[in-house]
DNA sequence: AAAGAGTATCTTGTGCACAACTATCTTGTA
DNA sequence: TACAAGATAGTTGTGCACAAGATACTCTTT
């Protein structure tokens, strides 16, 4: 039993530590463009969602509003996206990629390629690990 | 191929996101004691290592010195540990748990138990996932 | 003894993570 | 219409993550 508890503890540390190691893998590709990993996540989700609200981005990235507000402002200040209060619903802020932001798509692709090479895993291994992580995340979201 | 790249991308996001979800699981147990998850990691590694240097803790937790220095100072200010420059090697700072720090051991155990219940995984599932994460971390440390 | 390499730690600065609180707006209900 | 409930964002404050540069020390080599 104690053994299991120690394993649980280690598992969580492994997730925590490996997550930061993987984030570091992106750095050599993203930093030359002045981007951080969370900024990369936000921009990629924007390219997939298209123009959307801050709340939409938060759901896609699981990032808090308190994280997204300053992050989006920094990206808007650099001209990569625009933030406009919605005319239809004045509570909502609409986020859109600018042409400068769209121009970063090749960088996102490069980052993905770089990561694929760095992982050193087969596609099957990646799928299997991903399934495990998804199941765990699902369980934590809905412990039902 | 593009498919694989998307998988890689998602895998990394899953790690990043799941890591924060698991950290959040610790919060209900740690917060009443005024502890954060990184502080918990440092204190647990101290209970396992015994008195040691800041560098030892950094290797155990994979935390940067710039993270550890203020973190340790906060814990020292609260009387949970002591920081003393080593007499033998004046470069090194020795970290020791105080009795107040030792008294938190039951909290660490409670956190582990809480997490074990929250994960909803069998011991075998935990072991398997952990093995995968260890292999990946090892590969990233030594891409040889 | 003195210089240089290597190590351990600290300092500073930017950005993210998250909690608590506030302001504003929409919608359902009376 | 008016109001309470709930949602959407913003603001503020603390702590962590990490890079870059500074400081101080040890050890080896000369």
From TrEMBL, chains A, B:
Subcellular location: Cytoplasm
Alphabetic keyword roster: DNA-binding
Gene3D superfamilies the UniProt entry points to: Winged helix-like DNA-binding domain superfamily/Winged helix DNA-binding domain
InterPro entries: HTH_MarR-typ, MarR/SlyA-like, WH-like_DNA-bd_sf, WH_DNA-bd_sf
Residue ranges of domain HTH marR-type in the record: 8-138
GO BP terms in the entry: response to stress
Keyword Manganese: no
Pfam families referenced in this protein's UniProt entry, alphabetically: MarR_2
One term of GO molecular function: DNA-binding transcription factor activity
Domain of life: Bacteria
Residue ranges crossing the lipid bilayer per the database entry: none
GO cellular component terms attached to this protein's record: cytoplasm
The protein, known as: DNA-binding MarR family transcriptional regulator
Species of provenance: Kribbella kalugense
């Amino acid at each position: 039993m104690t053994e299991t508890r120690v394993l649980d503890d280690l598992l969580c540390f492994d997730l925590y530590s490996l997550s930061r190691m993987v984030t570091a893998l992106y750095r050599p590709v993203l930093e030359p463009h002045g981007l951080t990993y969370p900024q990369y996540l936000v921009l990629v989700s924007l390219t997939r969602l298209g123009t959307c609200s801050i709340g939409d981005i938060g759901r896609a990235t699981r990032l808090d509003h308190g994280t997204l507000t300053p992050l989006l402002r920094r990206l808007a200040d650099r001209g990569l996206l625009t933030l406009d209060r919605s005319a239809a619903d004045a509570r909502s802020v609409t986020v859109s990629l600018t042409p400068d932001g769209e121009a970063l798509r090749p960088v996102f692709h490069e980052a993905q390629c770089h990561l694929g090479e760095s992982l050193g895993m087969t596609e099957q291994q990646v799928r299997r690990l991903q399934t495990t992580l998804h199941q765990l995340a699902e369980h934590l979201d809905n412990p039902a």
